[in-house]
Structures are given as C-alpha cells and as structure tokens.
Design brief:
heterodimer; A: alpha+beta; 4-stranded mixed β-sheet; 3-stranded mixed β-sheet; 10 helices; about 30% helix; B: mainly alpha; two-stranded antiparallel ribbon; 4 helices; globular
Chain lengths: ~325, ~100
C-alpha cells in the first residue's frame, strides 16, 4: 500500500485541531473545487483534498491514520501489526488497496460485515472525464479510448480499484464544452442500486486555421488590396475541403463573409456556418514597379479613409 | 467494447425523477432550485415537469457544491446562479474571441 500524507495535502500540522482542519478544507475547497476553479490540475487536487478531509475530519479514522505513522508520500508501507484488528474489524490484504479506499471502507457500519453486506441500495459512482479531440474528429465523429479505475467491492466490503478500458463512440455533432453521458459506465451499484454513469466533457484542440464558437467556425481570409477593391473569387478551406468564395467588390477588412452550412454538424441535424473574416494584407516589401503603381494610384484616388476624423474635429 | 454516448443538450429531455436520480439532488432540493429560478423546467406550468438534458449538468454541479461546501438552499441557489452567469460570460467571450482576427486576440 502506498502512503499518502493527508496532513501535507491539507497544509496543516499533524497536531491541528478539528476546527483548523475544517478551515483548511474550506479554504482549499474554494480554491480547487472543479465547479468553480480555473487552476490547472484543480480536479486532481480537489480529489486528494476530499480524500484527506474525509479521513481527518472523523476522529476514529484520524486515530487509525495516525497509527500508520509517518512515511514519505508514495512510499510502500504496511500498517503496524494488529492495526487491522483494531480498526478494520478483520484481516485483509494491504497489497492492492488504495489508502483512500481503505479509509472509505472504515466508515461506521461498513467495516463490520462490509459495505456490500448490508441491504441498502447504493447507486454506483459517477465519473467525469474530459475527452480531447480534434476539430476534424468532431466534424466526422470519432472514437475515444477511455480507461477508468472503477471501484469494486470484495466480499468483506472493501474497495479495490479495477482498471476498465473501453472505446466510446462520440457521434458527429460534438463541439467544445459539450457533455455526453454514457449510462451505466461508472461504478457498479450495490444491492440493486443503479450503476453509475460516465460523463464525457468534450474539449477541442485549438486548430491551425479555424476558431470555434458553438457549431460555427471562423477563419481569417487575407485579401490583397486589389482583391478587396475589385472583388475576386478565392479558395477558402473548409472541414470538407476547399470551396470557392466570391468576394464582392468593395469588401472591407473585418467584414464577415458567411458560408452557410460549412460549420460543424449539429447533433440532431443541420450544420453551423463558416465565417470568413476579411483581412486586407499588404506585402512587407513591394518591388519598384509595384511602388510606382501605388504612387500612381495615390495621385489618382480621391478616397479618404479618415474622413470621419475631420468631421469630428469640425464639431 | 464500444458504447454509444448520449448527448446532454436541449433536444433530449429528462423527467423530474430522472434529474433527481442522475444528479443526486432530492425532490425537495430540485423544487427549491426551480422556485429560486435557478433550474427551469421546460414548461413550469405543466403538471409534471420535464427538463432539457443540459440542465442535468447544472443539477449535478449543484449536488456537488451542496455536498462539498455544506451549503443550504439559499446559498446553493446563489452560487449556482452566479456560476451560470460565469459560464454564459465565458461562452460570450469565446464567441467574441473566435470573431477576432488572429493576431489581435
């Protein structure tokens, strides 16, 4: 069994009072709770915190934990002789058991006769996993490989983690932040309780060209100054391959040209749109002849892009 | 083993009982959150309530927050409604960022 230092997880002294432990929990829970936190790795930290607090807030469990002595976190160790008789109520193997699961099993009424031995219906544990997929995968639909450590109860009611791996089909229609439910794929229910569910949170990898909002996509469309003025037919990339887009004469930078139905498919039919956002690009270095032509244009043109400045000044 | 996933979005609906069972909230808590206007059923005037499936995400969040912070219904309703506002604002920000040409974000 690997040691976990619950006191250092909670940032408290081994002699901390119950009140200090409660305060530390509140402070850290606010910081790392996955529903409110934006800290990287918050979910993992909150899990560790919850496990530490569940043990340290209960005087019986805390006494049992303290009896284990102090070891380096992650160090393999065995409880002192007689520990399981004093706290566990029976003999069991410490080889493949997680410290958190061991203490979860020590709850009142659970260690005598075991958690699975009662007749209270208990739903299985739900799991939440983030599936990182590419935009192309969201467009076509994809399969993701998932691996979960699902709790299983032995005949004495102690929890063992069983690795379960499977493929989940993500149908086309997914977009960033969308949730999917895989019914019954969480932990096993007890005494007729329903099996837990697995919730998938879709996270899209950033794409080289496209930006995503809901099922709409946005792409920058750089145009040469003469294309913007005269209009042009240009090739625009889409997830289904390039399409030809007609740019009307007099197109301004920042204008959005809509390509209907070229966005991500929606789960129940229809598609989002693709918006090409016009940028007027200029060459970083123009040749002699180009510069001469631009000078000629500057002399011939009456266009004043800052006319509205002058109107403001006249007021 | 390959499993089909179920979307949690507006086209799918859950009954009041299903929302309770899947989120862990009690019927009283769910009704409380509806009364506070935090979790709206599709038709609040209907004899039996149904909820769009995306509300399950919020209900599960409410259940976790209640458990992990020991909140009463007043505190929970306030926290969940503020979280919803944060999520809406994040959505708007994501949308605005997507509309900005790259290099200006």
């Amino acid at each position: 069994m690997k040691y976990k230092d619950y006191y250092s997880v909670m940032g408290v002294d081994r002699k901390a009072s119950d009140e200090e432990i409660k305060k530390a929990y509140r402070r850290l829970a606010r910081k790392y709770h996955p529903d409110v936190s934006k800290e990287p790795g918050a979910e993992e930290k909150f899990k560790e915190l919850g496990e530490a607090y569940e043990t340290l807030k209960d005087p019986e469990k805390r006494a049992a934990y303290d009896q284990l002595g102090s070891h380096r976190p992650g160090q393999d160790f065995r409880p002192p002789p007689g520990w399981e008789k004093q706290f566990g109520g029976g003999e069991f193997s410490f080889e493949d058991i997680d410290l958190g699961d061991l203490f979860a099993g020590l709850s009142a009424g659970q260690h005598r006769g075991g958690r699975g031995g009662g007749n209270v219906r208990m739903p299985g544990q739900d799991f939440e996993v983030t599936a990182h997929i590419s935009l192309e995968e969201a467009y076509r639909g994809t399969e993701v490989d998932l691996e979960l450590a699902v709790p299983e109860y032995d005949e004495r009611g102690f929890v063992h983690r069983e690795r379960r791996s499977f493929k989940a089909r993500i149908p086309k229609g997914a977009t960033d932040g969308q949730r999917l439910r895989l019914p019954g794929k969480g932990g096993k229910g007890l005494n007729g309780g329903r099996d837990g569910d697995l919730y998938l949170n879709i996270a899209l990898h950033p794409h080289r060209l496209f930006r995503v909002s809901g099922h709409d996509l946005f792409v920058d469309l750089p145009l040469a100054p003469w294309e913007a003025v005269l209009g042009a037919t240009v090739q625009v990339p889409t997830l289904a391959g390039p399409v030809r887009l007609s740019v009307p004469p007099g197109t301004r930078a920042g204008q959005q040209l809509r390509l209907a139905g070229r966005g991500l498919p929606r789960p129940h039919g229809g598609e989002g749109d693709l918006f090409a956002i016009v940028q007027v690009a200029v060459p970083s270095a123009a040749g002699e002849r180009e510069r001469a032509l631009y000078r000629q244009l500057a002399d011939a043109s009456t266009f004043n892009p800052r006319g509205h400045f002058e109107q403001e000044g006249a007021k | 083993m390959r499993i089909e996933a179920q979307w949690l979005h507006r086209q799918i609906q859950f009954s009041e009982e299903e929302i309770c069972e899947l989120s862990g909230l009690s019927a009283t808590e769910l009704r409380g959150l509806v009364d506070y206007g935090v979790l709206a059923p599709i038709d609040p005037g209907a004899r039996t309530w149904t909820f769009s499936a995306d509300r399950l995400v919020l209900a599960r969040s409410a259940f976790r927050l209640r458990n992990d912070f020991g909140l009463d219904l007043d505190g929970l309703a306030l926290m969940v409604s503020l979280l919803e506002r944060v999520r809406e604002l994040e959505g708007e920000m994501r949308d605005l960022r997507a509309r900005l040409p790259s290099g200006s974000r």
